[in-house]
Amino acid sequence: MKLYADKFGTDNVKIIQDSNKVNPKDLDPKYAYIQVTYVTPFFEEKEAEERKTDFEMHHNINHFVFETPFTLSGKKHGGVEEQCKRRTILTS
Question: Ranges for the DOCKER domain (predicted)?
């Protein structure tokens, strides 16, 4: 955060703490936004088999995954039978 506050000014940086998709039309163009979420390492099956040690499983990683719950109706909450999970894979 300090890096961006130094670059854009402390009052010009806002954090989005929600993993949901952000509609760019809802953002004020005078601010720099940072979206924060929790990610875990992601490996394709073959790569996971090749990474044998704990060190290999936690270093030199360029794919990460996070999951976001949602309902098909668009409601924030629903019964267990209505809930779905969206998996997003990020590459750095």
Answer: 1-92
Give the pLDDT score at 89: 95
pTM to 2 decimals? 0.68
Looking at the fold, whether 58 and 15 belong to one and the same domain comes out as: no
Mean pLDDT over each residue of the chain, to the nearest integer: 91
> Which range marks the domain in which residue 3 is found?
1-36
What string of DSSP letters covers 70-90?
EETT--S---GGGEEEEEEEE
Q: Are residues 26 and 50 in the same domain?
A: no
Break the chain down into helix, strand, coil percent, rounded to 5. 30, 30, 40
